[in-house]
Amino acid sequence: MASAIEKVLSGMVDMHVHSGPSPFPREFNHAEAARDAHERLQMKAIVVKSHHHNTVMDLLALEGELRNIPTQAFGGIALNGMVGGLNPWAVQMCLQMGGKVVWFPTFSSGRHIDCHPEHAGFPTPTVNLTVEKTVVSVDGELVPEVSPVLDQIAEAGAVLNGGHMYPEDIEMVFTAAKEKGIDRMVVSHPDFVIGAEPEQCRKYIDLGAFIEHEMHMYDPAASMQWPIENLYNWISQLGPEHTVLSSDFGQRGMPKPVDAFLRVCGALLDLGLPERDLQQMVRDNPSHLLNI
């Protein structure tokens, strides 16, 4: 019989799953992640992310396994050096094949390299990740490659994620995106790598973005173990209507996404977060973003 927290989370969506294949060691593949999500929480969908490649190709290769799993698995592309950076052709292929999310540079962003020049806190990569892909030119304007990428996202109605970029660069990209009619935008873990304070995040929200917080930072079974009160305060300041909760899990040796959601979301309820607010952040908001 399902527990109280399992009933609250039933039908949720996890927009940030690091299952494999990947150059980094992973705990399970995308089909195994979707199966665990369905069997234990009846999740509506997951989005699988790689810092290296278009994950739609992985999902097509696993189509036979995924066909019998009710939880939908969606892919996307992160615009790091391995795919040519701000590459509209790679974005077009991904989105035309069913991709749902385009992450601007993560490991190839200047901000990420500043924080992790030697990949501190990350597994040793099998390919060089420190190939900086900047979105802002020396004169302070967005580089020309940004516009056609945004055009592809706008045409597909896909999700634009700010990646691991500098806070001010994310704001510039989101401002341009809004002008192109993009209305599905996300900033992941603003207080990890990116360093965007709540006041900066309110600017993103004004542009139409959601702020995503990850179980990875708050699950006591993981390595970071930030105080759950920090997450509760973020939600209180910015509002559940502007917040998405995702796992950012799948790495080998780390908790499974379902276990992390059960622990962290249970702790939020213990702090007094209303069940309806939790469902909005894990079910309603990500469902809107993915248009499902």
Overview of the molecule:
InterPro entries: DUF6282, Metal_Hydrolase. This is DUF6282 family protein. With 292 residues, the protein is of the alpha/beta class. It has one domain: TIM Barrel (Alpha-Beta Barrel), CATH 3.20.20.140. The chain has 13 helices and 9 strands. The protein has helices at residues 4-9, 30-41, 55-61, 63-66, 88-96, 110-115, 146-156, 167-179, 190-194, 198-206, 228-238, 257-270, 275-290, and strands at 13-17, 45-48, 72-74, 76-78, 101-103, 159-161, 185-188, 209-214, 243-246. The strands form 2 sheets. Strands 4-5-6-7-8-9 form a 6-stranded parallel β-sheet, with helices on both faces. The chain has a 3-stranded parallel β-sheet with strand order 1-2-3. Strand 6 (159-161), helix 8 (167-179) and strand 7 form a beta-alpha-beta unit. The radius of gyration is 18 Å and the shape is globular.
